[in-house]
Structures are given as C-alpha cells and as structure tokens.
Amino acid sequence: MLSIRNLTKTYKTGDKALSDVSFDLPKGQVVGLIGPSGAGKSTLIRCLNRLVEPTSGRVMLNDMDVTGLNARDLRRARRRIGMIFQEYALVERLTVMENVLSGRLGYVPFWRSFTRRFPGADIQRAYRLLDRVGLSAHVDKRADALSGGQRQRVGIARALEQEPELLLIDEPTASLDPRTSRQIMRLITEICREDALPAIINIHDVLLARQFADRIIGLQAGRVVFDGPPSQLTDDVLTRIYGAEDWAAMQKCAADDAEDEAQARADADRLLEAL
Fold first, then answer.
1. Which residues have CB under 8 Å from 157's CB, separation 6+?
2. Topology (CATH) of 2-242
3. Helices (runs of H) and strands (runs of E) counted in the chain
4. Are 4 and 57 in contact (CB under 8 A)?
5. Which intervals hold domain ABC transporter (predicted)?
6. What is the pTM for the complete model shown?
7. Residue 180 CB partners (closer than 8 Å, separation 6+)
8. For residue range 47-92, what is the model confidence (pLDDT) as tens digits?
9. How buried is 192 (Cβ within 10 angstroms: 0-12 exposed, 13-18 middle, 19+ buried)?
10. Neighbouring residues of 11: CB distance < 8 A, sequence distance ≥ 6
11. Which of helix, strand or coil describes residue 35?
C-alpha cells in the first residue's frame, strides 16, 4: 500500500505546488489524477519518488518511508517504483530488448550494465514482458523505428522489468491518437489488476480516466478537491476542478476528437470498399 500524508511542496519563489495532500492507495488500484495545468499533478507524481523533493509530509510505500531515505537508500528504493513517461524516455539507438533491460540497471553491477551483459533470468523476464505488451515481434528493432504506441509499450515493459511495487505514470496518452490511447490505458489497467500493482496515472483526458481508472483524484491549485469513483465525477464536480470555462472547452475538444475519429474510420471503410 502507498500512504501519503500532508504532502506539501513550496518552491523557493513562494509558490505552493502541493498543499497537505493525503490519501492511501491499496494494491491493484488504479488512480486517475486529473486537474488543470498547474494544479500540481506532475509535481505530486515526482514527489512520490523524490525526483522533486517535498517540503514536508510523508510518503510510505509498504514498509518504506520514502521521504526519510538518504541518497544511497533512495537509489535502491527507486527500484521499487516504476515510472512511465509521457515522452517515453527511451534510448533511441538501442533495441527494444536493450531498452527493456535498462529497467534492471539498479540491480546489476556496473560492468554488466556497461557491457549490456544481463543475467539470463532478467533476459527471460524481458522476453515474457514484451510478449505481454504485444511486442514480441519487435525485440531487435531500434526504438527510433517504433510508432508512438509501440514506444509507450516498451516504456511499460521497462517499468515492469524493475519488478516494482508501485507504478507512477505521467501523461501516458498525451502524444497518442484516441484509439491507441484506449489500447494503452487498457493494457496498463489490466496489468495492474492482474499483478495487484497500485498505479497513479497523471492524465489530461477525463473521458479516459472515467473509462479506465478505479478511482479519480482531482487537484486544484495543489489541493485535493475530489477523491472518489468515476461514477461520482459529475459535470458539477468537473466544473469545480477545472472551472466553468476550461471544462466547457475540454468537452468541446473531446467532441471534436470523437468526430474526427469517426470520420477517419468512415474514410478507411470507403477506401476498403473501393479496393
């Protein structure tokens, strides 16, 4: 279980990015973290593994007090926290397999990582994970030859290669088309439920959050203003999170995206009929 208590982040400028954020996350639960730009979503994600140092508060991951670790112990602790990035963070010139195996860098001696000689068990696990995310046919392909959805699948497999106790996922669908976004969200949530792996997903797409997350946490100006199931995420709640003007604009963008996707499907059907 992840337990967050009174987490606060104040920058040197005096700007408060997070203010007394508290919640618990049990095993296997997927939380969709929503809110407007500047609400503190990315800061919260990064405070949990101390890529950003919180000003005060406490983060407990099972038996480990993340906020109380020294630098050496923190490096070890980060092995237990998998992170999936919006821009994939792959090494473009390396193969899919080599990128996945980089998830074991915190476990192997330097000489093994430098020469890319990983233990057989790590390699076998990487093969299983690539099959699980649907990339078994792309093991030896360079990362820069992949589509956006494939790159995100590599990022998922790399995070799982760490054998984490928690997944932190930052805008996993921001660069993807609607169909691929649904596939990626479905894959993440299925893996979390099968492996009893808790996850926090910073996500800008409210419709995707509603569809796939078990629970929604809404941030506004660094504070939790909603914490509940997707079924309770009404328009009134969303207006409180985003503001009336921003929520109306988001609804219009979602409707436009749906219309564009429907048109693309119709165009593809017409092309197939013409063949």
1. 100, 103, 126, 129, 130, 132, 133, 135
2. Rossmann fold (3.40.50)
3. 10, 10
4. yes
5. 2-246
6. 0.83
7. 147, 148, 149, 173
8. 999 999 999 999 999 989 999 899 889 988 888 999 998 887 888 9
9. buried
10. 17
11. coil
